[in-house]
Write a structure and sequence with these properties.
Layout lengths: L6 H10 L9 H4 L4 H25 L27 H25 L11 H14 L2 H14 L25 H4 L2
């Protein structure tokens, strides 16, 4: 009997061929030569190191802090907010639950994961946000809004006329000559 690859090597190979590890054909589950296995081990260690570095850089930023797999704590448990009506808080909780369901369904259907964490799709994100506004589903808009919020991206690509983040200092263009006569 041929020895099977270790779980990490199976998972990485499965990801490479875009299937779950249990769907790998038997002939692909067998151990490879020691040189190949050493290379897979280095790839796995590099991937783990990268993820740990990303998590470390995101520490302290509540938008990027993951609580996946953690027990609820007083910090992650639902909170009450002074001045916020309990019905409003309950609505936000229901909306958040519905948004999580929608995102989970999209991840399962399309194979999405945490691509939103990358920095290379800001323009695409803005286009998708506007596309989903036109489609009319508030949950889709909220999902893309959350992705942008987590990356600290602005919904407008045009930053002209803006003085920092204070919208009260927004400078409107001067009216055209024909408009001034009205």
């Amino acid at each position: 009997m041929t020895e099977e690859r270790d779980p990490l090597a199976l998972a990485m190979l499965a990801a490479w061929v875009n299937v779950t590890p249990d769907k790998l054909p038997k002939e692909m589950r067998a151990m490879a030569d020691p040189h190949t296995m050493a290379a897979w081990k280095r790839v796995g260690e590099a991937a783990v190191a990268y993820v740990r570095a990303e998590q470390t850089s995101a520490q302290g930023d509540p938008r990027m802090t993951s609580t996946v797999g953690q027990e609820p704590t007083s910090e992650s448990a639902p909170a009450t907010y002074p001045g916020l009506h309990p019905e409003t808080a309950a609505m936000v909780d229901r909306f958040a639950a519905a948004l999580k369901e929608k995102l989970a369904a999209a991840e399962a259907k399309y194979g999405y994961a945490d691509h939103w964490r990358t920095d290379d799709w800001e323009d695409e994100w803005r286009d998708q946000l506007l596309r989903h506004v036109d489609k009319g589903d508030p949950l889709d808009v909220a999902a893309y809004s959350a992705f942008g919020w987590a990356r600290d991206w602005r919904t407008s690509a045009d930053t002209s006329g803006r003085d920092g983040d204070d919208w009260t200092k927004l400078r409107l263009p001067e009216p055209a000559q024909s408009e001034q006569k009205l």
